[in-house]
Amino acid sequence: MRGIKKAFGAQVALAGVSLKLAAGEVHALVGENGAGKSTLMKILSGAYQPDSGEMWVDGKPYAPANPSEARQRGVGMIYQELSIAPHLSVAENIFLGIEPRNGLLIDHAKMRSEANKTLASLGHGNIDVNEPAGDLSVSQQQIVEIARALSMGCKIIVFDEPTSSLAQADVERLFDLIDTLAKRGLSIIYISHFLEEVRRLTSRLTILRDGASVAVYETKSIDDAKIVAEMVGREVKDLYPRSQRTIGPVLLEANIPGSGKLTLRRGEVVGLCGLVGAGRTEFLRAIFGLDTIEGKKVLVNGTQKTSDPRSNWQAHLGFVSENRKEEGLALDLSIGDNVCLPALSKLGKAGFISPSQRSQHTVRWISDFGIRCQGPDQPIGNLSGGNQQKAAIARLLEADCDVLLLDEPTRGIDIAAKAKIYEVINRLVTDPKNPKAVLMVSSYLPELLGVCDRIATVCRGQLSEAVPVAETNSEKLMRAATGN
Amino acid sequence: MSNTTSSKRLLNSLGTFLALIAIWGLFFSFGNRAIGSAEGIESIVQQTVVIGIAAIGMTFIIISAGIDLSIGSAIALCSVVGAKLAVAGANPLVTVSVTLLSGLLIGLFIGLLVVRAKLIPFITTLGTLLILRGLALALANSQPINAQDSNWLRFWLNSLSDDMKFLIIPPGGWLMIVLALAATGVLRFTVFGRHVFAVGSNENTARLCGVAVDRTKLLVYMIGGAFAALSGLMLVSYQGQGDPTGATGYELDIIAAVVIGGASLNGGIGSIFGSLIGALIITVIRTGCTLNGISESTTRIITGAIIVTAVAIDRLRQRSN
Fold first, then answer.
1. Counting CB atoms within 10 angstroms of each CB, which of A40, A387, B160, B234 has the fewest?
2. Which of B8, B11, B192, B209 has the highest number of chain A CBs within 10 A, making it the mutation to test binding with A?
3. How far apart are CA A328 and CA A388, in angstroms?
């Protein structure tokens, strides 16, 4: 791939990326969220077409119009979200779209035996090819997808964060399998946030930053600090500003049956780390009353809340959803409507609101947070992810929240917007007049270590004691998160 | 800087308005000029008011990402209620209040089914379409109720007498405009109005932000019912009778008017005056076709084609934004 460019509207996702992959090589693609990894892989697998740039496979020009053409040319993807048909059998899934035929009819016997053979060659002959694929475990479903890619004759397989939903033992088996595939001469592109996985598996790595490939390294020749520095494009130290924090009285006490207890004090940032799906988000949502949990206890400022979101906003508790599009924002509506939604009644009297008040309030946050936009009446869906996220956080401040519950506040946004959000979080908890308290969930450990005062880990729904950030590090957290 | 989007919005409604003028101009230039006469305009207004008033309520519903397919049946039922009371000699205030109350109850019923029983509005109102029609037929014994002699009711959409010509259009037309102004005010300048937009644009966001989603939806359907009731009274005023089989198929005209007016059936987008212009477009086509002796079958084809074209143009315009 050379000089690949892709823009969505005004937002440039890829500004000229090049990538070279040798046969039998496991190549890592690393970069921050939003650096362009997924866009690049969607272009490689034919889901998107590049605006410019060229690709070759086996020395021949390659420009797939769609994913099935890409697979015919030998490029397959294993997405984070698996794409199996749960009601079809394992064999049917493996041969979906390439069913062996016997005249007009599908040759089921051949399909089953071939499926068996492929699975056995992957060391998973124990999977019953007649079973509905939906009944398999996630790791087995992943094997089925790999078998599908092999059956289609794929020579290049892209793994996008394949370990995020796997248990540790399954992760090891997957790594062995990837080694085997590489030895057979297949080329693997491996996308991961976890540098230790990159070290374990890959021989070379390409670093993406802000839509450009910044460097290619031999994995052995580069240390972690250097990789991260290349990913963010500067020294990592000043990314996470940390003023002197003065920890005040308890603002929030939460006791969620089945997960655990947590206290949050004025002037501190507490982080929740853990694997995706371990129950971090659920913990936050339970506190905010978005999911109902029997017998939970949430005290805000010492007062018990029978919390639904409405009463929580009134108690100065605010929540930012991890999913901006589905839940966080009303994309058709203006920035002003989105920012002011929980506290509309403040904009006027007796149920009426003044649009000029709304504009004034919103303009204040636009300039304070540096939200790049045409003005408070612009539909929020037109903004970039980072600017949308700033507005989503501004909503909490517009509603005078003292406790900020942030679920993956920097997911999928560019590094500049991230830096702004870290700066804002630091500023809020060290506000001399009214220091706030922040409880944030993040999958990105450097971020938690950089921003938080204490970090608690959620592992299989269980919340651990929050430990001061000085007493922990990413290895300890990772071990706690995986239950080792 | 906030003017960019406000002016874009103005431009969008201006586009619909220009379409209206263009369609009217076409009929006027190339067909029977009666469409531009005082009588022609009066007739257009008379027909638009019934659709238009109901479209105001429907705009609330559609902005909230709901739909009401039973609005034609609700109009018929309320027209029967109103006509029966008027014929029985009930005081106008009582007649109007009871009819409005019927509309509110209809809306409450639909709203409860949607909110409490968690039924999809499309299916719910497909059911109430039949239920309400049946109720109207039962209440009227399947016969139209003649209300020709109810002067106060006839006043709203009767042809203007000579000493009333200063009004230019029948009082019902003015009522519709006043109601549209009030409804626009509610949608733009009240907390409730912004909640309607929020619920329609993204219900999850609204819930997250503490909006009382269920209550908002319930109120929206009740508002829709109240406007259907008023529309029913206007139908009696126009036709001189409460007809249990009347207003059949109006739901499609009303929904089309709202969509032509720029609303999105996915919710979160819509404007009251856009819907009124949409209602006018539909009546102008009908009237123009009738005046020019175009057959009923051709009229339907033209109306359908214009609805599809209007919406297609709108989608193209949105995509280019």
1. B160
2. B209
3. 9
